[in-house]
């Protein structure tokens, strides 16, 4: 049995008019590259990016390939973005079958945002970056924070 291929999915986050927006970029992990490096390249982030943050938020199997999702911010080219639907969710059909049959990209982006909201309160490195991009972190911090792999109801 061969191991599945790996694709990195970067969910690039930005803020506009007080709301969160995102776009997605993807690339296969090839040549022994580390997924973190692939995600950083997809996002165009470097150590010189003010407030730059890259965090792995989820994974899934899609068409026999493992998709590793990273939240990346700030989006350095926030054109062609769409609003984050913070109420978007997906889950598996049974407690012992946590992987849903299909995963909507809106749910992936919403989960990544909720995960970042949790990290803003629990991770010192992430908390430090929140002060550098207040216009982006203000709407993120309003979300119901959840750990990776968990779902929480979003208040309406």
Give an overview in words.
The chain is of the alpha+beta class. It is 27% helix and 27% strand. The protein has four helices and five strands. It has a five-stranded mixed beta sheet with strand order 3-4-1-2-5, sandwiched between helices. A hairpin with a 2-residue loop joins strand 1 and strand 2. Helix 2 packs across helix 3. It is globular. The C terminus is likely disordered.
What structural keywords apply?
5 strands; globular; five-stranded mixed sheet
* Helical amount: 25-40%
Tally the helices.
Answer: 4
Strand order, main sheet: write it out.
Answer: 3-4-1-2-5
Q: Describe the global form.
A: globular
Average per-residue pLDDT, rounded, comes to 90
Radius of gyration: 15 Å
Assign the structural class, choosing from mainly alpha, mainly beta, alpha/beta, alpha+beta, or little secondary structure: alpha+beta
Provide the succession of SSEs: EEHEEEHHH
Strand content: 25-35%
Alpha-carbon distance between the termini? 46 Å
Q: Please describe the biggest sheet, giving its number of strands, its sense, and whether it closes into a barrel.
A: 5 strands, mixed
Count of extended strands: 5
Low-pLDDT sequence parts: 151-156
Brief synopsis:
The protein has 156 residues and is of the alpha+beta class. It is 27% helix and 27% strand.
């Amino acid at each position: 049995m061969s191991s599945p291929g790996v694709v990195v999915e970067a969910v690039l986050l930005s803020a506009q008019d007080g709301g969160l927006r995102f776009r997605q970029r993807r690339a296969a992990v090839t040549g022994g590259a580390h997924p973190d490096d692939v995600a950083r390249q997809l996002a165009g982030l470097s150590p010189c990016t003010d407030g730059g943050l890259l965090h792995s938020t989820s994974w899934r199997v899609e068409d026999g390939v493992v998709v590793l999702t990273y939240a990346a911010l700030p989006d350095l080219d926030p054109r062609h973005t769409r609003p984050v639907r913070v109420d978007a969710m997906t889950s598996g059909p049974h407690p012992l079958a946590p992987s849903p049959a299909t995963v909507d990209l809106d749910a992936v982006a919403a989960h990544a945002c909720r995960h970042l909201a949790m990290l803003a309160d629990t991770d010192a490195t992430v908390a430090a970056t929140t002060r550098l991009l207040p216009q982006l972190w203000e709407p993120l911090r309003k979300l119901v924070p959840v750990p990776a792999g968990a779902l929480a109801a979003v208040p309406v």
